[in-house]
Specification:
By secondary structure, the chain is mainly α. It folds into 3 domains: 77 residues, no CATH class; 58 residues; 38 residues, no CATH class. The protein is 66% helix and 0% strand. It contains 7 helices and no strands.
Length: 189
């Protein structure tokens, strides 16, 4: 399912197809982790360049180190995306917030009653504001649990990837560069 116009990361995004050969694009359905396959292929290509004496031993080692680091970072990002937070964190925090918000007026009415009848009535908006703060903190925690879902407050992966793409194309001397991803309605994707 595609959310809010974001690419479905279960398939090869359309913008990636321009960097793949037709054979590579067709092979995607044969691999559970196509990104890992591509890194392995790039490693083989680096070794071929070395065997053909196009690059030096040092360059091969540097490129291989980059691929190894990329593979490590890719795995870390995948683990963050796929690893579910234990439900007890979300459930316990929610229950404690509900209990706190329900018991808060009982603790504050006595203190506000010292200000008189007016003080008792002032405890109502005060309790509402404090309860709202705790509800917002709970929602922020819920949104932070899944930073790659393509929602408003998530990591702008598309924008980050496009910036990297532009940087790499410039390093390679390309002059026709894609436009950077701009925010839409104040949201950067």
């Amino acid at each position: 399912m595609i959310k809010a116009g974001f690419p479905d990361y279960g398939r090869t995004p359309i913008f990636l197809n321009k960097y793949l050969t037709e054979d590579e694009a067709e092979l995607q359905s044969h691999y559970k982790n196509f990104a890992t396959y591509l890194v392995a292929q790039q490693s083989k290509d680096v070794n071929e360049l070395k065997n053909m004496n196009i690059i030096s031993d040092f360059n091969q080692m540097q490129l291989q180190d980059c691929l190894n680091e990329f593979y490590t970072l890719q795995g870390q990002a995948e683990r963050i995306k796929k690893f579910p937070l234990p439900r007890q964190f979300a459930s316990t925090a929610f229950v404690f917030n509900v209990l706190f918000i329900m018991l808060l007026p009982l603790g504050l009415v006595n203190e506000f009653s010292k200000l008189g009848d007016y003080g008792i009535w002032m405890s109502i908006p005060f309790c509402i504001i404090i309860g709202w703060v705790y509800i917002i903190m709970e929602l922020v925690g819920d949104y932070s649990e899944n930073p790659f879902e393509g929602l408003m407050f998530d990591i702008p992966m598309l924008s980050i990837c496009r910036t990297i793409e532009i940087d790499l194309l410039q390093i390679m001397g390309e002059t026709e560069l894609p436009d950077p991803i701009l925010s839409r309605n104040g949201v950067l994707v």
